[in-house]
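Example record used in the benchmark description.
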Amino acid sequence: MSAAPVVETSRAGQAGTLGLLLAKTLGSWAMILGIITVLWIGLLWAFDVSDFVGKGPVDVFEYLFREEGSAEARAEIWSLSMVTVRDAAVGFVAGMAAAVALAVFIVLSRVMEAAIMPLAMIVRSVPLVALAPIIILAVGRGTAVVAVMGGIVVLFPALVTIVFGLRSVTPQIRDVVTVYGGGTWDVLLKVAFPSALPAFFSAVRISVPGAFTGALLAQWLATGEGIGSAVVSAVSRSQNTRVWALVVVITLVSLLIYMVAQLVENLVLRHYDMAQKA
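Model output (structure tokens):
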């Protein structure tokens, strides 16, 4: 029996699975957009917000696509959004890397847990606005401040989630690895990390919005770049439609990246489950 039909069937199945997951992700994205739009219009109506301050979807659409300077506005907002995405990526990577490293220390040593967790909770509980002057004095106003401020927002929820995942290894599996001559690092690398994949991806999904929050705060308080700075500038000039457009665009971008992270999670976990069944 030729293996070619089997390979083609497997590839077709994988393509079908990818298409199904993509369709579900797009469907979720469309549903969330619909809910946000309904809430947006409903809250403006419920609180009777002045037309001068509160702008609806139609106002934002006209600002971005129908007015004389719409092309320039779109180009500028897109450029600002990419700066914010870059800063969010810096904060996300810094926070997730720190979370994984600290989670390993915590899982390996109860002493390290007693030292790290209270400090992490203290840093997380202090408002970032209050910490900003100290961080700026310590690291300046460049990429380092973006990494630190974004990393602080990302760190704590990711740390707690990853630690929970790494500790999900049952004593029986740990004993099996030990019986076959494995040590603590073998349990961690060969058992704990694979079993923590769902927790890790949950931490990723939780951290994506946090990374954007950290980036916007860093841009507002420190760097003077991107959407965070542009919103403050537009508010000070009473450019209310521009404010809403900036917020809408960065919200859509962050939501899209969140959905991409969710799609990657579904693909990786599905592949891992198939590998285990095989």
